[in-house]
Amino acid sequence: MPTKVLSGDLTEDLTTDEILSLRKQYLLPTAVHYYQKPLELVRAKGNYVYDETGREYLDCIGGIVCNSAGHNHPVIQARMKAMIESDEIQHVTTLYLNQHIVKLAEKLASLAPEGVNRCAFTNSGSEANELAFMAARHATGETTIVNLRHSYHGGTSAALAACGHHTWRFRSQPVAQVTSAMEPNCYRCPFGQKPESCHLECADNVETTIQTTTHGKIAAFIAEPVMGVGGFIAPPKEYFHRVAAIVHNYGGKYISDEVQTGAGRCGGAYLLTKELEIPADVITMAKGFGNGAAIGAVVMRDDVADPLAGKLYFNTFAGDPFQSMQALTTMEIIEEERLIENARDMGDYLRQGLLALQSRFELIGDVRGRGLLMGVELVSDRKTKAYASAETNRVMEICRDKGVLIGKGGLFGNVLRLAPALSINREQIDHLLQALEAAFLALQKETM
User: Fold this and answer.
1) Which domain holds residue 61?
2) Domain for residue 99, yes or no?
3) For the chain, how far is it from start to end, CA to CA, in angstroms?
4) Is 129 helix (H, G, I), strand (E, B) or coil?
């Protein structure tokens, strides 16, 4: 149960109203919450989370795409308890030697594309992308970063400067030396193309952007293999190959942001960059990498890493033993329990169920994604593709009532985001699909 931390009292429970009052009083107004009646979560196990009343919910968003191996996995719990009971050091920086960080680096490099083998660890995906930008700028001697419209790369300064959503940007946000290319969104193609007529104009736009908004050389291009906050937009494989060639031709480094797509979530390889054979120079990750632990990672090629020699880069908490242990253990669980294969199979099963719903409900405009990173874009009119933002909120509320938690994304908040743990099974996916069906039926009745 939640505990009240008032006047030193660690035992008295807070009510939901008290939590809301204290949030309003002491947290920033940016701390928004899902649902009309905010949900208080106090416990979790496997693929389920529980509120303060003990009610169970199937977690199909994973604390925002963080739950890869399942909540409170027993192997992670056992290793954490063993470290605590043996008084193993909790915090140690890279100024001292420690086995956990190098074991983690060795394992991560073994799963990355060939030649991408120099690692650094951070506390989040935001910091991972900050380091990637800094390293690319230092290695190339250039400063301009090319990002994509509708992209999101974190909440820190340089990461937000490369954000493609006005909702995440602030008036004080510096955007110098950043330029944006068109988004590769096949459902809402900015060039008006259809799959059968597409010539990857969106990829060629990266070159046009460099030619018209920079001095002809760049430090880096950054893209998510599946655009997460943008609404799980999944470009075709060929897009990345053409863009990488363009980026390298203009002297830049290709940064693949796998904060949401990594850790086997997309069902083909531990890193989607490797599965899609993207010739990336730097790969960043977090979220499911540590199964919710506060750890991110950057993996880069020697020609990006070596120029950093002679400079000082330090992160106080990066690679701490407990977080490093949890990330490495999560990688081992994903391998031993064959969760990547399960993500592929259950992702296919989920996709087929979503397509079946799309054939019945006009509200569903598009079904997309890879593996267990699935997006469902809702539109109030399939011809005009008008954003069904209010309907998306209603679907989330009804799913909650049915015991299923899902997320949303997209610039206009009209894309349902589904990202359950990689251990989800058919029965649980059926529960998710049944909840969605009930929500669409309810909305259909409301509009009749």
Assistant:
1) 33-65+338-446
2) yes
3) 43
4) helix
Helix (H) or strand (E) holding 59: strand 56-59
Query: ∠302-308-314 over CA atoms, to 5°?
Result: 120
> Position of tokens 């592929």?
344
pLDDT digits (tens, 9 = 90+) for 210-268: 999 999 999 999 999 999 999 999 999 999 999 999 999 999 999 999 999 999 999 99
DSSP letter assigned to residue 254: E
Domain end point (choices 310, 336, 362): 336
CA 246 to chain centroid: 25
95-127 tens-digit pLDDT: 999 999 999 999 999 999 999 999 999 999 999
pLDDT at 154: 95
Q: Which residue has the tokens 């933002």?
A: 389
Alpha-carbon distance of 41 to 394, in angstroms, equals 20
Beta bridge partners of 378: 364
Helix locations, 221-309, DSSP H: 237-249, 272-275, 302-305
**Tally of structural domains, the chain:** 2
Same domain, 343 and 201: no
pLDDT surpasses 60 at 6: no
Task: Say if CB 219 and CB 140 are below 8 A apart.
Answer: yes
Helices (H), 141-179: 157-161
Read off the pLDDT of each residue in 147-166 and give the average, rounded to a whole number: 93
Residue 23 lies inside a defined structural domain of this protein: no
